[in-house]
C-alpha cells in the first residue's frame, strides 16, 4: 500500500509564533493596560496623575531641595530643606544621651542588628541558642550598657534617653516582654480550669477593649498610686509596663489561633506517652503552634512598633517627640513637612521590611499544603 | 476539671497529688489566693497613697463646675457646666469623628480594595502602593502630618480658598453653610422614617412574591424612589422650612455658617486614610476568598454579571469581610483617642486630660474613660457574634 501524500502529512508543523499584537511589550500593554476603552481611559488618567505627583514630589524632595549647610540660612531652594534633619540627626538617633557614652548605644544597635539578621536568615545555624541569647542575655546586657552605673560605666538616667534609641528600646522590650506573657495567657484561655480560664479571658478582653492611650495614661498616673509610697517608679518603666500588658493581650489572641489549629490528636498522643502538661505544651504543641503563627506575631510586632510613637503623649522623648520638639525651635519654624516626612520614612522602612519578612516566612511555611 | 476520671481503676489508692481533679482545684485555689492578695496589696497601697495626697475618692466631682472652655461642643456647654457635662461633650466628639471616619474609611477601603483586583495593571499597582505606604506609617505621624504640615500651611481666613462662595478653607478650618430648620421642618425627618419603614416592608413583600411566583420586582429602584421622594414631597409641601446661614467674611474671621475645626479635619483624614488601607486588604481577601467556581457556575447558568456580583460573590465575600471589618471599626474608634495629640476635644483629651488635671481624680476618670471604650467594644463584639451565628455556612 502506498500512502497518499496529497492528503496526509507525515511530519509535525512547527508551532507558529503568537501574533505580533499579543507578544512582547505591545502584547503586555494590550493585555494589562489597554484591554478596552474603559481600561485605556483609566490607564491614561493614572499615568498622568502618577507622573504629576511624582514630578511634584521629586521636585520638592530632591531637585529643589537643600541638603548641605548648618543653619536656616542654607535653606534657599523652593523645595524641602533637609538641613533641618541633618542638624538634628544626632538627637534624632540618641536623644539627650551624653555624647561621651554614645558608643554604648552603638554597641547595642550593632548587637541588635546582628541578632535580628541571624534569626531572620534561615541558613544560619544555632538558632535556638541565638534566640535564647536574644530573649535573655541581650536585654540584660543592653540594660547594663545603656543605663550604666556598674563596671565603671557612667550612669545615664532614663530621662536622658531619647530618639530612635528610645523607640527601639520600647519596641524591643515590648516584644520580648509581651511574647511570653501572651503565651501564658493563650494557654490559660484554653485551660479547662474555669477560674484560670475566666481570669485569662477577662484580662485579654479588657486590654483589647481599651485604647493604648488610656493604658499609657493609666500607667503614668495610676501606677505610682499602686506601689508603696516610698518607691520611686521610673517614667519609662511605667510606660513599658503599660505597653507590655496591652500587647500581651493581642499576642495571646494570635497565639491562641495557632493553638486552635493544632489537632487534638497531638495532645492526646502526648498524654498517652505519659508526658506532663508542660512537657506536652513545651515539646509538642507550642513549637508547632508558634511556627504556624509567625506571620501573625510579626504583624503584632509591626503594630507594636508603630504604636511606640504614642509615648510622646505621656512626655517620653522618642524619635517622633524629638522631631516634634525640634519643630517648635524658633530657628526652625515652618519645617513640619520635612520633619514628619522624615519620621514617616524611618517608621515606614522598619515596618515595611518587617511585613515583607512576614510574607516571606508565610510563603516558606506554606510549601506543604498549598491549594 | 482537668480530665473526667471515669475509668481510673486505682482511684483513691494513689497519693492525692496524682489525682488530676484535686490538682486542678489546688492550682485554682492557689491562683485565687495569690490574685486576691495582689489586688488587696494594690488597693491597700492606693488607699494609703490617696490619703497621703489628700485626694477623696468618689464621683462627687462630677457635679462641680468645670470652668474651662471646649473648642467644639455638639450640645450646649458653657464655662459653668459641670465636669459630668465635659464627659458627655467629649464622648459625643469621639462618636462624631468615629462615625465620620468609619464612613470615609469604608468608602476608601472598598474603592482601593476593588482597585487592587482590577485587571488594569497600573490601577492595581497604584492601589498596592497606597496600601503599603499608609499601612506602614504610624497613625500618630499621619495625624501630626495632616495637622501641622498640611492644614497649618493653609492661608489665613482673608485669603481663604473658596468653592462656590459657600465653602471656605483656611488655617482655622472649613467654613460651610449651616442649615437652620424653621417651624414645620420636623415633618421631614418623620417622613424619612416612614419612607424607610415602607421600603423595608416593600422589600419583604417583594421577596415573598418572588418566592411564590418567581417574578422579581425592581426593589432597589422603587425603594430609592420612596426614600428620596417621600421626604422631598413632604419638605416642599410644608413650604420648604429650611434656611441656610451663609458664611461671610467680616474683619478677620467668618461669621455665620458652621466652622469645622482643622483638628477634626486632620484627625478625620488621618483615621480614614489609615483605616482605609487596612479595610482595602480585608475587602481584597474577602473577594478572593470566594472560589472562582462560583462565578463560573453563575456564568454557565447565564446569570448576568451584575447579579452574579450582587447575589453570589458579595454575599459570600461578606462572610469573610464583615467580622474583620468590625474589628477595624473598633480600632478606628479606639484610635480616635489620638486626638489628644493635636487638641481635638475628644473623650480622652477633654475628660482624661483637662478634667483629670483639674480634679486629680485619676482612678475614677481613667476607669470611666476605659469603661466607655470597653462598653463600645463589647457591644460591637456581641452584635458581631450574633451576625456570625446568622451568616455561618449552613452545612446540612
Automatic annotation (TrEMBL), chain A:
The chain crosses the membrane at residues 41-63, 103-122, 129-151, 163-187, 199-224, 310-327, 339-357. InterPro entries: AA_ABC_transptr_permease_3TM, ArtM/GltK/GlnP/TcyL/YhdX-like, MetI-like, MetI-like_sf. The keyword Ligase does not apply. The keyword Lyase does not apply. SUPFAM superfamilies: MetI-like (SSF161098). Keywords: Amino-acid transport, Cell membrane, Membrane, Transmembrane, Transmembrane helix, Transport. It is found in: Cell inner membrane; Cell membrane. Gene3D superfamilies: MetI-like (1.10.3720.10). It is a multi-pass membrane protein. Residues 164-358 form the ABC transmembrane type-1 domain. Belongs to the binding-protein-dependent transport system permease family. HisMQ subfamily. NCBIfam families: HEQRo_perm_3TM. This is Amino acid ABC transporter permease. It comes from Salinicola rhizosphaerae. The lineage of its organism: Bacteria, Pseudomonadati, Pseudomonadota, Gammaproteobacteria, Oceanospirillales.
TrEMBL record, chain B:
It comes from the Bacteria. InterPro entries: AA_ABC_transptr_permease_3TM, ArtM/GltK/GlnP/TcyL/YhdX-like, MetI-like, MetI-like_sf. The keyword Membrane applies. It is a multi-pass membrane protein. Its main location: membrane. It holds the Pfam family BPD_transp_1. This is Amino acid ABC transporter permease. It comes from Salinicola rhizosphaerae.
